[in-house]
């Protein structure tokens, strides 16, 4: 029965992973770290229990494919078009700058551990390390609900380009191979064929995928839905591999096309359990790859930290050059600072071509794993770190490009004092646009602050009083007149940025009425503590609308419905404010009441 030995390995991995995750959650360490640590424990660096990791690597690659497929289901083709500037310009700059800078640094950093490198090896190190982890970044951002944020959109755009750049990078490594006689014309012809087939495959997806999804979702058979979802995911990945693209990129393209269909939510719900299981195995496989001499480990950790800092700085500068604020740019730099799973592929290609020896290959793997291990902590700390550091680096030329201050659009009336603004709106998403529309319709003066330069430029042409800036910067808030506004409406989804904004507004204009949106009870509590006067909590407002519609259906008097709405809102506000009073010892424990 030795042919079923892999089942015992999977059981061992699952059991140990569960124990590690439970322990790590107790000490507030992300589960991803527990999974990587599981692989380290079972691999050659630890107890070396799992010696043949071939099946594990296969399952891990399937996990990455499923992850990118589900991420694609959250983004339509139209969403991708909005990222084209980030993908094309930002992605190209990130790969080239990071590759060259890390290559130059490799000459003297590798000497620190007694391993000299030549120009070819340095270029291999530089461009292998330029790639970030698609699986890790998108998994963590998705779990935190931050893919739709500015730094999440930057990360997605850069990661898409990196996945597309894997094939050209592998072609580039072929030119570095010792004794390579591959003619330039043949290489360019092969790259052109890959691009041609990619365009053709994407066009085929757009034509066929909606029809296939319609068929499998209309049959109302659970088995067909599960099998159909898996066939679409892995079929697209397989087709991509045939033309030299990464499996994950093919799955992402398929998911993105399916996202525009009506059945995308059913496909996503069906594929989720498989994704969670397989991506967990992927993170375990990362730890299994680590096999280094413990004497060299401190030097490798130091090199990994240098790479993290260098990549973060480069990505921050690129994001600022693309027009994003310093705070958002710092967050994107921290998100993309690590080295990714496709670096394993590039390093393996270089080793097979004779550009790297086994010792250098294992050193690279150790550096990659170290950067991936610290990534969850970096992403979690990014919002607070960026909010604290953005004012420190405010002197930088690209940190904040000032715009000529313009008066708010003149309102027909209801201005209490000359120059006074009724409301300063932070964020011009769906909620901010609706607030601005109502303010305009009721002749109330307002200004808007947003971090999207393109939106600001477009809307100002239409007469909207929009200004570019970051709400965590005092000068940006002053630019929109927060110091003389009656109220401030905070419509952004980023919790840490909103908290910082509330505190700044309270310092600048203590008498302003501050109202903020909140997705959860925890964030609402933080907003009240920071100084908000009112918080619209989505969970409360949804429940209020639901019971109001129900009472209307039962013909309950409108006065009674309004009374019940007021009770819910008042009690909700009291719940939020109780911890604030407890902080100074003047309140009582709500649990005792």
Automatic annotation (TrEMBL):
InterPro entries: Cation/H_exchanger_TM (IPR006153), Na+/solute_symporter_sf (IPR038770), NAD(P)-bd_dom_sf (IPR036291), RCK_N (IPR003148)
Alphabetically ordered keywords of this record: Membrane, Transmembrane, Transmembrane helix, Transport
GO biological process: potassium ion transport; proton transmembrane transport
Segments passing through the bilayer: 6-24, 31-50, 56-75, 87-110, 122-142, 154-176, 191-209, 221-239, 301-323, 335-354, 360-381
Membrane topology: Multi-pass membrane protein
GO MF term (any one): antiporter activity
Gene3D superfamilies linked to this entry: 1.20.1530.20, NAD(P)-binding Rossmann-like Domain
One GO term describing the cellular component: membrane
Main location: membrane
Localization per Swiss-Prot or TrEMBL: Membrane
RCK N-terminal domain boundaries: 420-536
Family: Belongs to the monovalent cation:proton antiporter 2 (CPA2) transporter (TC 2.A.37) family.
Protein name stated in the entry: Sodium:proton exchanger
Organism, scientific name: Chlorobaculum thiosulfatiphilum
Lineage: Bacteria, Pseudomonadati, Chlorobiota, Chlorobiia, Chlorobiales
